[in-house]
Structure prediction request, 139 residues.
Amino acid sequence: MVILIDTNVILDIFLKREPYKTNSELILTKCADRQITGYLAAHSIPNLFYILRKEYSQQERRKIIRNLCCIFRISDLNLDKILSAVDNEDFSDFEDCLQEECAVNVMADYIVTRNPGDFARSRVKIIEPEEFVALLQRS
Prediction:
């Protein structure tokens, strides 16, 4: 199974957001164990580095990013994806549209996000972390 993980799911782990942290950590572990092929969109990396600055030092953030890059594959951004997102009027949030473009490109089965409403018109199935963990347990 291939998933693209939205930035907010990773933030749940590192910002210790309860009650979301547990399911997000389980998904990360499944990706780290290669039971699931997990992707992050390339633009999630600088977003994470910036958002985590209040809680983590630069050295800690560099280690976090390095570790995430060992666990997840990274879906690159290129001109075609950016222009496709610019032209896509189904999304009000450009960043979410880029997430979807990356998910389509890697042929993800799901985008795992805590903001499913932001992806109402996505071409890729949307699933919240809690639902995804339940799906894994049924498999």
User: Anything to note?
Assistant: The mean pLDDT is 95. The helical segments are 7-14, 21-32, 44-51, 58-71, 79-87, 94-105, 129-138. Strands lie at 2-5, 37-41, 73-75, 110-112, 125-127.
